[in-house]
Amino acid sequence: MTPVETADRLAKYRLIPVIRYDKADDGALAIECALRAGFPTVEVTLTMPDAADLVREFARHLESHQLIGAGTVWNADDCARVLDAGAAYVVSPGLVPGLGAQVHAGRAAYLPGALTPGEVAAALRDGADIVKLFPASSLGPKHLAAVGSVFPGVRFCPTGGITGENMEQWFAAGATCVGIGSSLFSRAALAARNQKLLVEEARHHLSLLSLIPR
Given this model, what pLDDT does residue 20 score? Predict the structure, then answer.
């Protein structure tokens, strides 16, 4: 799959679970339950222990329509590790000059973080397929609408503070897709290892997504 094809799929999927926990086994459970609930993609962040190993393990068993990505990638060495592990897309909270070329050489899509128009322009010069608007909650949907107005045709993925209850506002402001993190699963369900409830919580978010016009 080419980077453009991967970006097209993310645009189609619209909602990306961002998996970030203190323990790798919590991350593995969250990934498993998100995929079982019907999410076609998850982003595994490198702030989590053994994140690259989790990418590798789950990449081996994905169905043809599913994608796994790696987030919080800040340097070339980590980028090489996650590409080797099977990441279909690479996400960074901010711009890392030159990372776009490396990601594309590995046939993955590139989602660098940006917040201001200058940062967005720099991300596009570095090859961004989708621009991650981060931290989205700092300025809100109106900021996305304002920035997006001077970058027609650019795809944005706001991340940070997105919930099932507010994601419609972000799509209305021009988001192509959104990243949703800690609000996807309740702490109680995760602590109890309650897979049935975790799957139900993930499916609830998918049901909310289905009500939002494209």
Answer: 96
